[in-house]
Structure formats: C-alpha cells, structure tokens
C-alpha cells in the first residue's frame, strides 16, 4: 500500500548527514569531526534538577506552553542576554527542541503557493518542513559573500509570494553570524514588508568576537525568535527549545504545538529551569574552550593551504574541498577510507554546499590534533 503514502513525504530524502553516517558507520579507528553537538556533558546541577523532577513525581502534563516558571525564566534569559521583551503569559512557548519550534512556526504561517527565503548553504532542518507545507524554499546564495546573508542578497529573492525569511545566525554549517550593522540593513529592507522572519538563534550563546544581536529587538511584530538549550547547555537529548513571538502570532502557533506534542517533557522542563536560572552563564566556560579550539583548527587548516573563513560562532568550519574529487561526497568518503577522518559533505547543506565540507570542532584538543595530523598527511600525498 505504499502508493497511499503522502506524496510530499515520499519525495523527502533522509538527510545527507544521515546518509553519510550510515555509509561510514562501522569504520574502524575513525576520527569523526561530524557531530553537531557539544562534547561537554550537561552541567551536573542541571542533571540533578532533572533527577529531582522524577523523584518529586513531576511527571505529568504541564501547561501546553510549558510551566509558567520556565516561561518566565526563558523570558528573563533572553531579556537579560539579548534585550528581547516577551510576555511569559502569552508570547513564550517551550518546545520539544528548536526542531519542533521550526516545524510549528512553518505550519502556522505557510500555505500552498508561498515562498520561504533561506540562505544557502543551510542546515537541512527547514526545507523538508517547508515542502510538507506545500510552500517553496528559495535559496539565497551566500557563497560569494563569505556565507554572510545581507539585505542586498535577500532583496534579489523577494517576490510577492515571499511569506517568510529564515535568518539562522550564527549559522550551521558556516559559522557566519551577523553584525549589528548587517542586521539594521536587513531591518530597513523588511520593516515595511508583510514578510515573517524566522530567526533561528540556537547558537546565540556561542558567538565569539562580537555581541549577539537579535533581530527580534528591531522587528518584534513580524519575527519568531527560536532558541533552545541543545547547544548552550549541551542538552541535545533533553529536547528543549524556546519560541518567542508576538501574542497575535504565538496564540496560533500554540495550537499547532498543542496538537503536536501537548507539552515539552515535564522532567526536561525542570532541568531547563535550572539551566536558565542558576545555569544562565553555563555556556561561558564552554565558549572559552571553543575559541581555543577554533583558533587552533583555523591555523592548522591554513597551514594545509585551505581557503577558509574563520567562524564567528557555533562550532563549525565550512571549507572548500581540494580539487580532484567528483563531489563533496566523494571527497568525504575518500577521507574516511584513506585517512580515517570523517567530515560532513557540503552537499548535506543544500546544493549550495556542494564543493565544501563541514568540520565540527566540538571535540577535545587531542582528537582535533590527531585528526588534523591525519588530514595533513592525506593531503600531502
Ligand atoms: C541551526 C539549527 N537549528 C536548529 C537545530 C535543532 O536543535 P534542537 O536540537 O534544539 O532541536 C539545530 C541542530 O543542529 C541547528 O543546527
């Protein structure tokens, strides 16, 4: 009965990251630079809060939007860090990871025939959902601008069908972020247009040489700010995301969230409360460590002759692959087979990622050093 399965779903492909993992799974003595999550454990005090939630039988449904205490903590967190002002009563939704926040936003605002502008290359979590909504993803090519999305690039892709622009910064996979000036240019372009902005700021606590500026502080009425604890507090498995939107919009997004998951996991919500209050600066020490690793990897890749942009944030390098390979997949497979090093082929991040590879530096210095030694040897052959 496969012919009865929804056509949009049938046409979806499993992500290029997963495809690559499946191919190299089981390779012995492989150093992997593929992972998109911090290598630090969840902070102990946050884990304890999760355990206490179980011991205290905090194991039932909560308010659909999350406990009011957690929503207040989330609102205070983004006010304190990024000057964002959202009412915890009706403008904050705690979601099952940022992934669910992306899903419920698109399902609330998109419909057949609408278009969504996304920078290319891009994290593969948006496009399938846009398509399942019957909308069309339109990639704005950022390759000639060191992967930076600017107002003048966005302008080229706006049509009367544009319903939303996705602005993810710092970016997975490129590490590029936006400066205050770049954001103000985008604000000037969009302020009089009836276009939503999905600002995916999941890496906002990992911005290295500048302050993170949220576009939600300028265009609050049309922006959905998405954040979460996966990256800032090394909590990918706890599945906690945060969605901030003006009330007229949040009230509709909340319905989609309600019929989707009812609420985020109660136990994780307790841990998240601890993370956003007592642990609100937990990311600072991780960030310091990432800066050391980023600078180390940058120097090593430069010595190997790669043409690279130093990432502003997140924990990825997006690097142009050497010549002589038929595709980024071909390069990545040969690197595994001949050097025992795994990176993610750029094609996993839309067609605009072809010709590049993503190297995550969310690994210990020992692992980075060994893997980069192997890579240097492979390239010198
Ligand atoms: C840009 C971006 N947005 C969203 C997500 C999903 O985050 P979560 O684990 O909170 O669902 C990721 C995860 O890698 C990401 O890189």
From TrEMBL:
Its cofactor is pyridoxal 5'-phosphate. The keyword Transferase applies. The keyword Cytoplasm does not apply. It holds the Pfam family Aminotran_1_2. SUPFAM superfamilies: PLP-dependent transferases. Its EC number is 2.6.1.-. GO terms for molecular function: transaminase activity. Residues 28-374 form the Aminotransferase class I/classII large domain. Gene3D superfamilies: Aspartate Aminotransferase, domain 1 (3.90.1150.10), Type I PLP-dependent aspartate aminotransferase-like (Major domain) (3.40.640.10). Keywords: Aminotransferase, Pyridoxal phosphate, Transferase. Belongs to the class-I pyridoxal-phosphate-dependent aminotransferase family. This is Aminotransferase.
